[in-house]
Design a protein that fits this description.
Blueprint lengths: L15 H8 L17 H15 L3 H10 L4 H7 L12 H14 L3 H7 L5 H12 L7 H24 L6 E2 L24 E3 L6 E3 L2 E2 L11 H4 L11 H9 L1 H39 L18 H14 L3 H8 L4 H10 L6 H22 L19 H7 L2 H5 L5
Helix pairs in contact: 5-6, 10-11, 12-13, 12-15, 13-14
């Protein structure tokens, strides 16, 4: 379910002229129901319940019958048996034909209707949605084929048991090899030598016959064929099953409790969706008012007294993190901050400031600052700005006067 104003239809204002023109059209639908002030809601609900339970009418059919009799409930109830709707029953043959048609044509219901001419498109669609929920199990044909295989397997087991007791399994003589017969177990069987018994009176030696015994498997070897497991996501509780099997009221109470839990969870999901939709609307409407305007920063090459003091405080806090110092000042680039560090090192005693920062942050901060260290030398440009110079060029360009008196921008 989609919740929110963006999914709601915009209802236009009522215009009598347009309504009059619409009523004069020829392709208007048939009116089925108009509410009446003289009819109580309790009687209307009772009438609808009777039509649904006794005659199988739906809401639209029941209200249409009542509107046809001008909101007279007694006449409508008397006329209900004359127009009982035809029950939409599906036989096994119809279900099999629908499954075959769906496997051939998919969701093209007008082609499936050619295989089931007595079913309407609406009936096919309704059956499709009820049939789709059970596709995770088995179809009618699958169940029939499985039943035949099970019966065939049981018949083979019975034949094995009967063949085990036939005289064809009897083996005479100690030196004969084992004979493999149909229906016998695949396991090899060892035959013990046949003892010879001599009668005392006659002196004739007789050999005892030894019957080959088949290995008896577990008594429930076919139980795995008939054993069924619940569908995925469904779990059986022994207490609930016992309660449902003992008495009908207990079973009804268990099912009713589960239905109530399901309804409560659905309501919770719906409320969460509504809250999310309301929050999204608030974000779409009021987020622009709180956004910081994006202003293109213009870097200024001149350093005011406030900016110089702010830079010193930033160096005391961030050390050699020139990017953070540039962000704090706002209108100075990273290169300008580095030039300030070189030019004003002695004036503001920045070495001691760095020592305080290193002592506060330990060796990790000192090592990090050493990696980002950049030795630069001021070099005047046309607009009064300074640019960094490599250490090799610094030795060539620097003089004792410049070393003693750093330039200020």
């Amino acid at each position: 379910m989609r919740v929110g104003t963006q999914y709601q239809a915009l209802v236009p204002d009522y215009d009598p002229e347009i309504a009059k023109v619409a009523e004069e059209r020829d392709n208007l639908g048939m009116r089925v129901w108009i509410p009446s002030r003289n009819l109580a809601e309790a009687k209307l609900d009772e009438y609808i319940a009777i039509t649904k339970e006794k005659h199988g009418y739906n809401m639209e059919q029941a209200l249409g019958m009542l509107f046809w009799h001008k909101h007279n409930i007694e006449k409508s109830l008397a006329d209900l048996p004359n127009f009982t709707p035809f029950p939409d029953e599906w036989s096994v043959e119809d279900k099999v034909l629908f499954e075959q048609g769906f496997s051939f044509h998919g969701k093209t219901f007008h082609r499936i209707q050619q295989m089931l001419p007595d079913k309407s498109i609406a009936s096919l669609v309704r059956f499709y949605y009820s049939w789709k929920k059970t596709r995770s199990k088995t179809s009618v044909m699958d169940r029939h084929a499985r039943k035949q295989r099970r019966e065939r397997g049981e018949g083979e087991d019975e034949s094995e048991e009967t063949n085990g007791n036939t005289p064809g399994d009897v083996v005479y003589g100690p030196n004969k090899e084992e004979k493999k017969e149909l229906g016998a177990a695949p396991e090899k069987q060892e035959l013990k030598p046949v003892p010879v018994v001599q009668k005392p009176n006659t002196g004739v030696a007789e050999k005892l016959t030894q019957v080959k015994k088949e290995p008896q498997g577990p008594p429930g070897k076919n139980l795995h064929r008939t054993k069924k497991k619940p569908p995925k996501g469904m779990y059986l509780s022994q207490g609930d099953v016992a309660a449902m099997s003992t008495s009908t009221p207990a079973a009804v109470s268990v099912l009713r409790q589960m239905d109530m839990e399901l309804v409560a969870i659905k309501r919770q999901i719906q409320s969460i969706k509504q809250n999310n939709s309301a929050l999204k609307e608030k974000l779409d409407l009021g987020l622009d008012n709180f956004r910081v305007p994006e202003v293109t920063q213009k870097f200024n090459t001149r350093w005011t007294t406030e900016e110089q003091l702010l830079a010193v405080q930033a160096i005391r806090k961030y050390g050699r993190d020139f990017q953070a110092i540039s962000d704090v000042i706002g209108n100075k680039s990273v290169v300008q901050v580095k030039n300030f560090f070189v030019n004003y090192r002695r004036r503001f005693n920045l070495d001691e400031v760095l020592q305080e920062w290193e002592a506060e942050h330990g060796m990790e901060g000192a090592a990090k600052g050493g990696e980002e260290k950049m030795d630069t030398s001021p070099s005047s440009t046309e607009d009064g700005a300074t640019i960094p110079v490599a250490p090799e060029d610094q030795k060539e360009q620097s003089s004792p006067v410049e070393a003693q008196q750093p330039l200020a921008s």
